[in-house]
Amino acid sequence: MKSLTKRVKEIDALIDELKDGNNYLQELLDVVKESLNRLRNRLDRESSEMVSPFLSQLEALIVEKATLTESKRSVEHLIKIRRSLSEIDTQIIDIDNQVTILKEKLSLTKDEAPSIQRVCEKIADYLSEFLKATKVKSLKDVAINNSTFLPIVRNQQYHEITSGGIRTLTSVGYILSILQYAFANDSNHPKLVMIDTVGKYLGKTTLKHNDTITESDKEEGISSNDKSKYIEMYKYFIELSESSTEHQLIVVDNDLPETIQDTLQQYIVKHFDDNGQESTTKGFIDDAP
């Protein structure tokens, strides 16, 4: 019991000692906490004082960056405009040069351009050659009217010609004369001529026509028994076609002159027949169902 009592006293003394040590440590901890709080406040204050200038500077730099970026975009846009203006200036110079050249060409063309009378005279010469080639009688006073630009034969206006055969030859010759003029002179002619039913009034058939005077046709040597002018006209077509490769002459006719049928065979592009026989195609106008 004495030993235990002594042991209890020693433990109580140790507990008191530990309490005193604990109190001391608590006081020391309070001191450290207080010191830590002071240091924390000091750190916050000093950090704020140190960081604030940098933040202000950073904000200023961000604003400056935005300003510079906008300036850069503006400069790039102005550079594009400047380049466009430079290209436009170049184009203006080129166009001015072209306009100058065109004015010079226009002036030269005006100086060299033939008069209407001169053009009509040249076309009349071609028409006279065609009528002569088709053996038209008493060929004289062939011209082109400077007002209507229609042909004149034997000093008769086109609408005054009473022979249907002569009207046909004059019409065909007039069309070909314009084509021939286009060969030798700059013009807007497409170099394409299409003629349909060229044999009308030229003795190709025995049919009577109301829009011609029979006596006039007889005087001209045009009858159902005389196809000479019709044949000569085809010969002229061949000669004209072989004289140049820069044009196209398309003639539509129901049949061909027998005397030159073999010669014309090489020029036939398409042959239509009533019944579609002998390797031909059935006609698609009158014969269509």
Automatic annotation (TrEMBL):
Residues 1-49 form a coiled coil. It comes from the Bacteria. This is Exonuclease SbcC. Keywords: Coiled coil.
